[in-house]
Amino acid sequence: MTQQADTSTATGASVDIMEQFSRYEKIDASDEFIRQAVEDADLPALMATLAMITGDTSLITGDLKPPTPPMLTAIAPQGGMSHEVQVKAKRLAVEALKKFRDNGSQYKGKPSQTLLDACVSYLISGDLEEYRPLLEHELGIACDLGAPGWKKDEIAPGSRYRVAIIGAGVSGIAAAYRLQQAKVEFTVYEKNEEVGGVWWENRYPGCRLDTPNFAYSLSFAQKPDWPQQFSRQTEIHSYLKTVAESAGMRRNIQFGSEVDTMVFDEHRAIWTLTVRDRSGEITSEEFNAVVTAVGILNRPSLPDIPGLDSFKGKKVHSASWPSNLDLSGKRVALVGTGASAFQIGPSIVGTVSQLKIFQRNPPWMLPTPTYHDDIKSGMQWLLNHVPYYGRWFRFWQFWIAVEGRLPLTEVDDDWDHPVSVGRKNEQLRQGCMEWLAQQYQDRPDLLQKMTPNYPPAAKRMLRDNGVWAAMLKKPHVELNTTGIERITDTGIQTQDGALHEFDVIIFATGFKASDFLSPMRIIGRNGQDLHRDCWAGDCRAYLGITVPGFPNLFMTGGPNTAVVINGSAIFSSECQVEYIMRAIRHLLTQGHKAIDCKKSPYDRYNAWVDAGNLKRAWGAARTTSWYKNSSGRASQTWPYGLLDYWHLTAKFQEEDYEYL
Ligand code: NAP
Fold first, then answer.
1. Are 274 and 290 in contact (CB under 8 A)?
2. Distance between CA atoms of 597 and 590, rounded to whole angstroms?
3. Helix (H, G, I), strand (E, B), or coil: what is residue 290?
4. Ligand 1 touching residue 484 (CB < 6 A)
5. pLDDT single digits (tens) 46-101
6. How far is it, in rounded angstroms, from Cα 628 to Cα 606?
7. Does position 619 have pLDDT exceeding 80, yes or no?
């Protein structure tokens, strides 16, 4: 892999962040301790690490290469290595670690290009050349390839250039970090009192990741000591807060500030933002460019059920959980069975006196027996003591998910089945059904209620380690699938006429995902209103980033950028942020005031994305979900591979824009 000079000096803050998360102490462990630690290790990543830090490529040759079978319902442990190969790998790893300890454990050297290539090739199964830039970026050994590599005053000295970032969640932090590296002036407006976005807002009991943690982290702020593979909300929030603090970006964040409107002045090529602070005071600020980083799952959706306001007990949405909510001994309703409900239910069941869950459609669940487990102690020790093991483990997790289960969502045109869209999708369905049957073998009534009547991956699939079934089987729990008729002052009336009385109703009913960028009012060229005149309920963007008629307005997490079953949202965000940095660089070097996406690439791109979504379970199935808008178009989802999005955003295409 191409070696780059350590960019830490050129990019300022990156050095702090890398050091913050990469401290290694001297290895001081007995042979037996090392042996025990290796028993707990993820072997493929460990072998690559040891080969790199010792230079011994015999650790990654021949039968030691993980075969990495395609992902089905479950992921093959240890990259699919056979038992014999695992035994051999462990023996070699122990010997290598002992040598490393005895010869001085502070790894200081920089690996050669050939050595890095060998380590990467050992882990991946595709063509290295095809994936090289993406993999170099994600591995980030001794360099930060997402760094802009330029500074504002070097390419456009003298002039003032100000960027507004709206939102200080994951994407806002990534945008701020890159702008800061380029020494571009920026202000972040954050409606909350803290950074973290959804990871600050969602504080319901049980909130945690449902994608593997190492890959769900920023490439420029890698952390080797995650306590779990699917960490809790507090851990992820603390990580984001540490990143923001280490980078020194908090001074640029205006907390408690919500952007109400943005208006573009075409003559001056300036955006004027109207911002409301926590006291309700309105101020205006002018910027050359705006980056929206508001997320798509940030405006809670309460269902349109008659009588909603008449309930006299406590109503709670999962995303605005009151810190003082005491559920002990309470009769509680949980409306919805999506990702949030799936985490809330098992976490509160031991506290409440009665729990009734109101389900419209059951979710498909991916069997994940270790979902709540801590990373094993030996593995944790290795991650904290073996230099770069955290990076290689993150890289390995990332690689496994590059394609992930995406092939299992493909539509086969000749496939005719009521609850699957293709052959591989049917395989996935059967795998999930086996898990369900096992969970509910003693309760056929629950098995029937928990069996989805739509294809897997048509809606977000959930992680399950059995706690949901255990909860449903408790005597004070009921899964109600009758359908809600209305809400009364004392509870919920179902369509069979029964009245269920409650002290508290929890709405785990999701978010207004398709009202992207609402409730902000955004006025572009010719007085065009983005929501009313351009999208009209059907949000679209070129690369999910720009919209014709709205110059210098850049989105992160925009339309059709959500990955469903492969990769992580953070990867997409970083692609978008780095593309935006390329666009700003182009503007500044060419002396343009603004760029505006042309209509033809926008239309072409969206037609291509729509065609892709129709070939996926979530686009083809007649199912409602937050992936789709009210017209039934999949307006949130990215239907292709991660490499496709990487290539599309890796270069700023000048010809796709007009210049002001
Ligand atoms: P969601 O996936 O949109 O689920 C909403 C649930 O509410 C669904 O079960 C839906 O049923 C139900 N519902 C909506 N209106 C209803 C009504 N009138 N009556 C009865 N049920 C109703 O929302 P979410 O669970 O908050 O999750 C949203 C997304 O946030 C997830 O897909 C995921 O991407 C993200 N998330 C991630 C994590 C994590 O990583 N840990 C955790 C939570 C959420 P239908 O299916 O029938 O529409």
1. no
2. 16
3. strand
4. yes
5. 999 999 999 999 999 999 999 999 999 988 999 999 999 999 999 999 999 999 99
6. 15
7. yes
Give the residue among 501, 476, 506 at the shortest CA–CA distance from 489. 501
Name which of 629, 632, 633, 631 is nearest 516 in CA terms: 629
Sheet architecture: strand order including 504-507: 314-317, 504-507, 331-335, 354-358, 477-480
Q: Which of 13-22, 34-43, 104-113, 309-318 has the lowest mean pLDDT?
A: 13-22
| pLDDT value, residue 126 | 81
Q: How far apart are CA 256 and CA 275, in angstroms?
A: 10
Number of residues written out for the chain: 660
Q: State whether the beta carbon of 272 lies less than 6 angstroms from ligand 1.
A: no
The pLDDT score that the predictor gives to residue 26 is 74
Mutate to test the pocket of ligand 1, among 229, 233, 460, 468 (most ligand atoms within 8 A of CB): 460
Query: Residue 169's closest CA among 255, 227, 101, 230?
Result: 255
Percentage of residues in the chain with pLDDT exceeding 70?
95
Helix (H) / strand (E) element for 387: namely none
Question: What are the φ and ψ backbone dihedral angles of 105, each rounded to 5 degrees?
Answer: -90, -5
pLDDT at position 299 is: 93
| C-alpha of residue 231 to centroid of ligand 1, in Å | 20
Beta bridge partners of 261: 274, 521
Phi, psi of 616 (to 5 degrees): -120, 155
Q: Are 630 and 623 a contacting pair, CB within 8 Å? A: no
Mean predicted confidence (pLDDT) in 145-173 = 96
Sequence-separated (6 or more) residues with CB below 8 Å from residue 167: 188, 189, 190, 191, 197, 292, 293, 294, 295, 298
Banded pLDDT at 7 (limits 50, 70, 90): very low
The sheet carrying 270-276 orders its strands as 282-287, 270-276, 258-265, 521-523
For tokens 């007990």, name the residue: 313
Which atom belonging to ligand 1 lies closest to the Cα atom of 318?
26
Burial class from Cβ neighbours inside 10 Å (0-12, 13-18, 19+) for residue 310 reads exposed
Phi, psi (deg, nearest 5) at residue 589: -70, -35
What are the tokens at 111? 């690996």
Which pLDDT value is given to residue 253? 98
Q: Write out 226-288 in H/E/C secondary structure.
A: CCECCCEHHHHHHHHHHHHHHCCCHHHEECCCEEEEEEEECCCCEEEEEEECCCCCEEEEEEC
Ligand 1 center–CA 336 separation, angstroms: 6
Instruction: Give CA–CA dist 141/8, Å, rounded.
Output: 12
Encoded tokens for 229? 């593979």
Q: In 3-state terms, what secondary structure has residue 601?
A: helix
Higher-confidence residue: 252 or 135?
Answer: 252
Residue 641 CB–ligand 1 contact under 6 Å: no
**Regarding predicted confidence, which is higher, 387 or 435?**
435
